[in-house]
Specification:
It comes from Vagococcus lutrae LBD1. The chain is an alpha/beta fold. It contains 13 helices and eleven strands.
Amino acid sequence: MYSRKLKISLMIIGLMILYPIITMTVEKQQESRSNSMTVGVLQYISHPSLDEIYQGILTGLKEQGLEEGKNLKVVFQNGQGDQSKLNMMSQQLISEKPDVLIGIATPAAQALANATQEIPIVLGAITDPENAGLVSSNEHPGGNITGVSDQSPVEAQFDLLKLLLPATQRVGILISSAEDNAIVQAERAEASAKERGLTTKRYVAPSSNEINSIVSNMVREIDTLYIPTDNTIANNMSAVAQIATQAHVPIIPSVASMVEEGGVATIGINQTDLGVQTGRMAADIILKNKNPGDMPIYVFSEGDLIVNEEQLDSLGITVPKEVEMMMK
């Protein structure tokens, strides 16, 4: 009997000794797993708006416990607007065996989607993923893709245009032919303008080399220039704004960075916030094993008023009381 009690006591002591060892082993395995996390990011082109999104992605990942240099490896590629580079870079990112891929802007996301149907993909700054053929529907994406829409509040932007520029009758809509998301927004802009008694004309730039000549011609025919979310135009915004300002034509763009580069005002989505949400969704897939196909496309319900007071002054535009109240 004494011998049996001794054996039980020895077993208990042994378990007490082994428990912290087992716990430490499990913790090390978990730590090893977290240290192995890799996120591949493909950005379409460099300009302030997309650069802000990328920084927001890193912030969103960090908020969820994934920090570059500690327990996360981020592999970043920038196609600089070259579709052939995007395709090649997609393959390079896949070779890194990432846990998640992130595509910033529609062309980059499309390149990733064409490259893999297995690795989870999170979309950053894609206006209408369903229309772009990236998901089955924005509510139920299906497959290996989900993400965040940068769909601008076009109707609110045209309400702002009417308040700020009441003399406007003719609106020129400038887009590039390279981006599906810009075409979708141009259609929404045309509908919004028509509802408000405005006439529109769409101007399409086949390439960045032709933007300046197109803008030089269009400013002779319009009262106000409207620019949807278009990465090619955004990358050339300074030149566009210079031509329009010389012709005394105000610009209502869709994002804050384009206001800063010469637009007069907009109601737009904060690009850093957009990136943060993208990073959070990527972290949910990595850390919580969420299925991207079951995660609806995230759409922001509100936008921020952004005003370039210096540009308003240079064009002699008086801010009405309604807009002043929105600015407070």
